């Protein structure tokens, strides 16, 4: 009797739209959107908040075991304190993903908007509804979804060139 083929390993990709107050997350299983969520981090940005962000993402990555994590790279800001904080949050998420063995990359939000043909928050939410039939609660979740989709499209186009 022939053996049945080995089931393919699930590929989990997590998209993240990060900031010091909200982090939108989109979870894809084998390219299919299965879940979105938004984590809020109220209060003043400090090391305690950064530790909380690390803890939340450690639990998320432990639960879902992603092979790939794609972060939305924020647009540059003029305020150096804000820029430092955003870079620290992104760095903490990168480090946490790396500790879980995930491949990590990012994509600039301007490229995401261009690839996905969106301009603002409402466009992002509408695009997720139209493309995936998913009702997201926040634009952060929508941005996380579109980060993964734009990355997939952009990288596919790059490999063809």
UniProtKB/TrEMBL annotation:
InterPro entries in the cross-refs: RNaseH-like_sf, RNaseH_sf, X-over_junc_endoDNase_RuvC
SUPFAM superfamilies: Ribonuclease H-like (SSF53098)
Gene Ontology molecular-function annotations: DNA binding; DNA endonuclease activity
Parts forming coiled coils: none
Keyword annotations: DNA damage, DNA recombination, DNA repair, DNA-binding, Magnesium
GO terms for biological process, alphabetical: DNA recombination; DNA repair
Family from the record: Belongs to the RuvC family.
Protein name in the entry: Uncharacterized protein
Organism per entry: candidate division WWE3 bacterium RIFCSPHIGHO2_01_FULL_42_13
Organism phylogeny: Bacteria, Katanobacteria
